[in-house]
From TrEMBL:
Transmembrane segments: none annotated. It comes from the Bacteria. The gene is tpiA. Involved in the gluconeogenesis. Catalyzes stereospecifically the conversion of dihydroxyacetone phosphate (DHAP) to D-glyceraldehyde-3-phosphate (G3P). Pathway: Carbohydrate degradation; glycolysis; D-glyceraldehyde 3-phosphate from glycerone phosphate: step 1/1; Carbohydrate biosynthesis; gluconeogenesis; Carbohydrate metabolism; erythritol degradation. It comes from Aurantimonas aggregata. It catalyses: L-erythrulose 1-phosphate = D-erythrulose 4-phosphate; D-glyceraldehyde 3-phosphate = dihydroxyacetone phosphate. InterPro entries: Aldolase_TIM, TIM_sf, TrioseP_Isoase_bac/euk, Triosephosphate_isomerase, Triosephosphate_isomerase_AS. Substrate binds at N11, W12, K13, G173, S213, G234, G235. This is Triosephosphate isomerase. Homodimer. Belongs to the triosephosphate isomerase family. HAMAP family: TIM_B (MF_00147_B).
Length: 253
């Protein structure tokens, strides 16, 4: 199976204002100097600065949303549709992040509907899955991920429209990461699960990102693991220098 082109994605979460745009300018400058060679790059800033971010980053670094509503439009005060994200330049949208699942009670079936909404608007959906610490300690990690994948991914998955992000909940923002062997086991499991359901041709091209305390010092090790096709980076993506260092580490691994 040929490895898909790696994707390094930054998720700014609820951080960043117009005053943060210089960080993006710094990333854009590093990319012009070759930092993103051989990689697809993505920043998912808050929706309030998506348009300005797109204007700054241009085509070399994609921008994406952090969530979208499952409906195309309507009476959903405060929500954002996939088409609205696309309208201001987004090419991707994260769905089913564990913070959305926990804070907003998003079930696998809601996540699945959001994936379909993203596709309908022409966006690539980054579908997040991951186990809690209690689930890992109980030995349930693969079972939990199997259920999340089965429920969150629609039948019409294509490599060009879908990315899976494995984010162990206990590793997010904690500075803790799974061992390389644990990451390999989970990513192999996700790949095999995709192959069983969607076949080799589709599943081989779906990028499987690792997310959870990725930083410059551990990026080469984590991103060098088989079936790790990039990273979904939270905290470290807020600093241009760290995000660029992660990109360089992946390019070199
Ligand atoms: O979406 C990103 C992940 O939740 C990882 O966040 P983190 O890199 O701050 O641990």
């Amino acid at each position: 199976m040929t490895r898909p082109k790696p994707l390094i994605a930054g998720n700014w979460k609820m951080n960043g204002t117009l005053a943060s745009l210089p960080e993006l300018a710094e990333i854009a400058a590093a990319v012009r100097e070759g930092a993103g060679e051989g990689l697809d790059l993505l920043i998912c800033p808050p929706a309030t600065i998506l348009s300005a971010s797109h204007g700054l980053l241009g085509e070399a670094v994609a921008v994406g949303g952090q969530d979208c509503h499952e409906a195309a439009s309507g009476a959903h005060t405060g929500d954002i549709s996939a088409a609205m994200l696309a309208d201001v330049g987004a090419r991707y949208v994260i769905v089913g992040h564990s913070e959305r699942r926990a804070d907003h009670g998003e079930s696998d079936s809601i996540v699945r509907a959001k994936v379909e909404a993203a596709w309908a608007a022409g966006l690539v959906a980054i579908v997040c899955v991951g186990e809690t610490e209690a689930q890992r300690e109980a030995g349930d990690t693969l079972d939990v991920l199997g259920v999340q994948l089965a429920g969150s991914l629609p039948d019409a998955v294509q490599a060009a429209t879908t990315v899976v992000a494995y984010e162990p909940v206990w590793a997010i923002g904690t500075g803790r990461t799974p061992t390389v062997d644990d990451v390999r086991e989970v990513h192999d499991f996700i790949r095999n699960t995709l192959v069983d359901r969607f076949g080799d041709a589709v599943a081989g091209g779906v990028r499987i990102l690792y997310g959870g305390s990725v930083k410059p010092s551990n990026a080469a090790e984590l991103l060098g693991v088989d079936n790790v096709d990039g990273a979904l980076v939270g905290g470290a993506s807020l600093k241009a220098a760290d995000f660029v260092a992660i990109c360089r580490a992946r390019a070199a691994s």
